[in-house]
Amino acid sequence: MDCEPFKIIPVGMVRKENEKTWLEIYPEFSEAVEGLGKEDWIKLILWFHESDTPERRSVLKVHPYNNPKNPLTGVFATRSPVRPNPLAIYTVRIHRIEGSRLYIDWIDAHDGTPVADIKILVERLDCPRDTPIEEWKLDIGKSRQVGEINLIPRKDEHLDELEEVSPDKYNALVVEIGPKTTVLTAKELVDLIEVLEEFYDKLPVEIKDRFRRREGHSP
């Protein structure tokens, strides 16, 4: 089936100098960096422009690691830069951010390689494993973010079928802190709420008064 070509717009480029590697984000995309910070893990998507030729795009099998002693293998089963669309994906840590520069781990991409996109690393999505709550059971639209914590509830459909499930076995909430993911059972969620209420009660009266005023309650 013939497909219409589409356009990828570089948002920056890889830069290298001595032992340093950084991403130079173009000024028009600088606002997209907001929210990233030091020590964050990101998924870096590059366009291997030096492999973007009709001849290299037509190669469908390669010797892995460019070693002829390895058997020919379909490119989709390899990390070869030679493929129908020369995209490369890296998982790297941000060491520091200076303006439009994101200093990252060393990677084998060449200086000047276009950056196609950057995404945060999410363990739940990028490090797949058997999880107590399958992705389709999560109510993504009702997720809430508090600071660096992302809370994703389970869908409340068909709960009438779960009357016999005990609170300590019913997985109710996915909690993401940065790239890390954990799951809370209904019992653990209730325990967490009780602990948070205890911590809230210990806040200075002046701080709690400010929250009440903000919410329209009299102090």
From TrEMBL:
Coiled-coil portions: none
UniProt cross-references to PROSITE patterns, sorted A to Z: TSAA_1, TSAA_2
GO BP, sorted A to Z: methylation
Annotated protein name in UniProt: tRNA-Thr(GGU) m(6)t(6)A37 methyltransferase TsaA
Superkingdom assignment: Archaea
GO molecular function: methyltransferase activity
Species whose genome carries this gene: Thermococcus piezophilus
Annotated keywords: Methyltransferase, S-adenosyl-L-methionine, Transferase
InterPro entries for the chain: TrmO-like_N, UPF0066_cons_site, YaeB-like, YaeB-like_sf, YaeB_N_sf
Family: Belongs to the tRNA methyltransferase O family.
Domain TsaA-like, first and last residues per copy: 8-130
Listed PANTHER family: TRNA (ADENINE(37)-N6)-METHYLTRANSFERASE (PTHR12818)
